[in-house]
Task: structure prediction
Amino acid sequence: MTSTFHSIETAKRSLFTQTTALSTTGHNVANANTEGYSRQKVNMQASIPMEPFAFLHSTTPGQLGTGVEFDSITRVREKFLDDQFRNENNNFGSWSIQRDTLEKLEAIVNEPSDTGFRTVMDNFYKSWSDLSKNPEDVTARRIVKETTLALTDAMNQISRQLDALSQDLDNNIEVKGSEIQGYLGNIANLNSAIVKVESLGDNANDLRDQRDLMADKLSKIMNITVTDSPQGYQIQMNGQALVTGGAVQATVDSAFLNTAYAAGNLTNGEVHGMIKSRDTLVSDYKKQMDDLANTLANGEIQITLPAGSVLPDNTVLGGVTYTGAARTLSADLTVTVKGLNGLHQLGYSMDGSTSPGVPFFTSSDGGTAITAGNISLNAAILADPNKIATSLRTTTDASGAETVIKGNNTLANLLANLKDTPMKSADGLRNATVGAQFSAIVGQLGVQSQEAARQTSNSEFLVEQVDTRRQSVSGVSLDEEMANMIKFQHAYSASARFMTTYDQLLDKLINSTGTVGR
Result:
C-alpha cells in the first residue's frame, strides 16, 4: 500500500536531482575556459521502488516507482589519452628546447651573411694579397693588422656568445629544477587532500583536475610515469620515485637533474633538451671553433718554398737544421709547418734585423693552447706593424753584413695563398682549408637545425592531436551544456508542475471529501 504523500516525495526527489544537474551544468559552463578542467556529469538512476522482493508482498501488481536520485557527480576523463598526451608532451619539450638552442647557434654563427665570420676571414686573406703587391706599403701593413684584429675579435665574440648560451642553459636548468620541485609538492598536497575528501564518499573532481594539470605540465619538463593508487598519484622518472602519496621522495635541483641525465634516467622533456643542448650541441660547436682557431694558428700545412729563399739561421724543417750556406735553397723545398704561426716565423720583417718573424697569433690569457676565446694578434705586431714578416730573401754586402730585401714578397704570397691551402687540425680529423672547415661547421648546424625543426613540428602535431581527442572527451561544449540546461530546466518545471497537481489532488481529498466537503 502506497503512502498518501508518496507522489509528493517522488516530485521532491526529482526537483532535488534536476537542481543538482542544473548546478553542475552551470559549473561546467563557468569553467569552459579553465585550463585542465574536465566536464562533469550527474549520474542519475531510478530510486529504489516500493515493495522490493521480501517475504510479505501486497497484491498490487508490479513495483511502484519512487522517482529519481543521483548517486554521484563524476568527471569525464579517459586515462589512456592522459598517458598518451604526457608521453608525447615530454618528447615535444625536449625537441622544442633543442630547436630553440640551434636557432640561437645559427644567430651566433650568422651565416650565410655579408657581415658574418666568413666575410671577416675573406677580408683577412685579401689584406695579405694586397700586402704581397707592395710589402713596404705602411698602409697595407696596417690593413693586415686591422683585418687580423677583426678576425680574432670575431672568434672571441663567437666564443663569448657560446659561453653565454651555455651559462644561460645552465641557469635555466636550475630554474626548471625549482619549478619541478613546486609541481611535485603540489601533487603530493593534492594527493593528501583528495584522499581526505574521497574517504567521506565524495568525488574530488576539481582537485583531481588540478592534479592532472600539474602532471601534464610536469610531463613537458621531464619524462615521468603517473600511476594512480589508493594513496594518490605515484610519480616516477624511469623507475625513480619522485612522489608517493602525500610525500615528495626527491629534492630536485640542478645537481639532481644533471646526475639523472648522466645515469640515463632523464631521457626526455625540456630539462633533457637543455642538458643535451649544453653538453652536446653548444659544447661541440665551441670545440669546433676552438679547433678552427688552433688550426689557423698551428695546424699542419704543407707548402713549397721556392728556390732562392733564404731561411733564418738555425731553422729546423723536417728534422733538418738550416745554417750557413744551406740556408739558401737551391731548389724548391716542400715542407710541413705549423700553421700561419710556423710559416710567419720562416720569414723576415721590416724591423731592420735578420731575426725570424715572431708567432703571428698568441693566446691573450697566456695559455699554451690557442682557442677561439683567447686567440689574439701578437702584441709585438700590434704595437709595430713592421713586425709583419713578408720577405724570404736577404742579401750580403762585401763586408759580409746581411740585410733583408724588404721589397721581396715571397712570404706574403705564401701567406695570402693559405686561403686555398689545406690545413690539418691538431686532432688530425680534418684536413681542409680553414674556409672549408668553417663551411662544414655551418653545414652541420644547418642540418641539425632543420632536423630539430622537423622533429619539433612532428611532436607538436602529435601533442595537439592527442589533446584534441582528449578535449573531445573531457572538454566543455557550450552547445551541449545549453542543450542540457534546457533539458534539466524542463524536467524541473515538469516536476514542479507534477507536485502542484498532486497538491491539488490532496487538497481535494482532504478539504472536499467526506463530511468536510458537504
